[in-house]
Each structure stands twice: as structure tokens, then as C-alpha cells.
Amino acid sequence: MTIFSIIAPLRASTPNRKAVPPFPWMCAVLLAAITPAAHAFDIAELMQQLAGSTYSTARFTEHKYLHSLNKPLESNGILRYDAPDHFVKQTLQPGMETMTIDGDTLTIERRGKSRTMQLQDYPVLQAFIECIRSTMRGDLAALRQYYDLELSGEPQHWQITLLPKDDNVKKAVQNIVISGAGSSITSIEIDQARGDRSVMNISRDSP
Questions:
Q1: Residue 18: phi, psi to the nearest 5?
Q2: Which of 53, 73, 121, 180 has the most CB within a 10 Å radius?
Q3: What does the pLDDT look like over 80-98, one tens digit per residue?
Q4: DSSP labels for 111-160?
Q5: How far apart are CA 77 and CA 92, in angstroms?
Q6: Per-residue pLDDT tens over the stretch 157-183
């Protein structure tokens, strides 16, 4: 069947009416037939997009909503990332604290004291840290090791929902939602298993 065999009966059924030129809607049909389908944005493409950033600094503001408190706890500070596995979270307010991750080593400095630990000895903590670090470096394999992933949005406005795979992690975290624009992460929301939650908003420093 051709498009002309569809037009002919329509024209024949209205002999006493002024014929409507078929060309506009013919063109619409033909254009629809030859126009390629929209490109589907997938998780692999997003990871490649994120992997292009090798160094970044950003400011963060974090709110923690706890059932035991009437108002959220607020903190702010600076984030630094140096590919592939160096990450620093430096809290400035309300008190100084620096969390540094180098490979599998985590160091926390607070009030003049320092504590160092190996992430492999703390699987739940390791899973949480990898959700951020592996997203920043575009490491899809590492993310899938710990989480099931759900992506929505488009390259310039996207959102990943991370659902823990490990039963022990599930006892601590219900889900993590990371939002971003292009190669930048703009927010991280964590819903804890017991109902508490935290929201970190991130604004990337200009190069």
C-alpha cells in the first residue's frame, strides 16, 4: 500500500466539496517516516561524560534531617576531587573537619586529632564512599558492584537513583539520589533505612 492509495478513496468520497490539498499532511507523514528516533541517554554515556573531569573543586551545603531533632543540622565546606581516587571533604562550619580518601585509605581529622582506617575493613562505609567517588570518576563497574542504578533525565539535567545490593548496606541506607548537570554533580540525597535523611547541594567553582 502506498500513500497515494490512501489519498484516492478520501478524495472520491467527497465529490461535491472543494478538495483539500493533501500536500501539507502528506509532507508531515513523510517527514515522520524518515526522521530518526530521538537518541536515548543511557548510564554508560553519562559515565563517559563524568569521566572527562580529572580535577574539580566545589562548595557544599548539607542539611541532615533527624527524627530526634526539630530542625535540620546544617554544615558547609569544600569538596576536592583529583582523579582517579583522591577525594577530600573539608567541613568549615559549624566545626572544622577534614575527610580525605586516598585509594582505599580514609583519614578523618577533627579537633587536632587524626584517625586513619582501611575502607575494606568497613564495607558499609566503603559502599557509601564509592557511590560518590565512583560517580565522579565515571566508574560504572564500581557503582554496579554496590548498587542497582536507575537513570532519568538528559545529558544536561540528569538523576541517578542508587539502590544498595548488600543486605548490610540496606540496613543503613534505603537509597541515594545523585543529581547533576553535564559533568558536574549538583546534589546528593541520602534516605537512611530508619527514616533520617540528608541533602547536600553542590556548587562547582569556576575554573
A1: -65, 125
A2: 180
A3: 999 989 999 999 999 999 9
A4: TTEEEEEEGGG-HHHHHHHHHHHHHHTT-HHHHHHHEEEEEEEETTEEEE
A5: 5
A6: 999 999 999 999 999 999 999 999 999
Closest listed residue to residue 149, CA positions, set 126, 168, 165, 128: 165
- Quickly tell me which residue has 530518526 as its cell: 36
**Quick one: average pLDDT of 20-24?**
53
Residue with cell 567541613: 91
How buried is 46 (Cβ within 10 angstroms: 0-12 exposed, 13-18 middle, 19+ buried)? buried
Please say if the pLDDT value at position 11 is more than 80.
Answer: no
Q: Across the strands, what pairs with 105? A: 102, 118
Q: Which three cell numbers stand for residue 179?
A: 543529581
Residues 6 or more apart from 192 whose CB is under 8 A from it?
A: 172, 173, 174, 198
According to DSSP, residue 195 is labeled S
| Phi and psi angles of residue 164, each rounded to the nearest 5 degrees, phi first | -60, 145
